[in-house]
Amino acid sequence: MLGPGKADLLAGIRDTGSISAAGRAMSMSYKRAWSLVEEMNAAFGTPLVISSRGGAQGGGAHLTEAGEAVLSHYRTLEQRALAAGSEQIEAIAALLDDMSEGK
């Protein structure tokens, strides 16, 4: 229902006011970005993103109160997971191949 990519898309919509601009910033087509927004809106009891069509007023998109809350909770969870798993992350990083030799 929500992962790092969708969270980044929500943050992009919040920051740009646009689904297409948020998608472009992630090298994603508008169709793909819109599809992800629809998935998120359907998965939650309340839509996370509200959009309006273009025209004279310009259109755009914004996060709802629920969208802001979900994004905030997700970012907090990311920070806690990173802090709790820092030892394991360092251990995994130590096992990676050295890519400096062009492997």
UniProtKB/TrEMBL annotation:
Mention any Pfam family matching this sequence.
Answer: HTH_1
Provide the protein name.
DNA-binding domain of ModE
Recorded source organism is: Celeribacter baekdonensis B30
Domain of life per record: Bacteria
Domain HTH lysR-type, which positions?
Answer: 12-68
Q: Does the record's keyword annotation contain Ion transport?
A: no
InterPro entries given in the database record: LysR_HTH_N, Molybdate_resp_trans_reg, WH-like_DNA-bd_sf, WH_DNA-bd_sf
MF terms (GO), sorted A to Z: DNA binding; DNA-binding transcription factor activity
Instruction: Give UniProt keywords alphabetically.
Output: DNA-binding
Coiled-coil residue spans: none
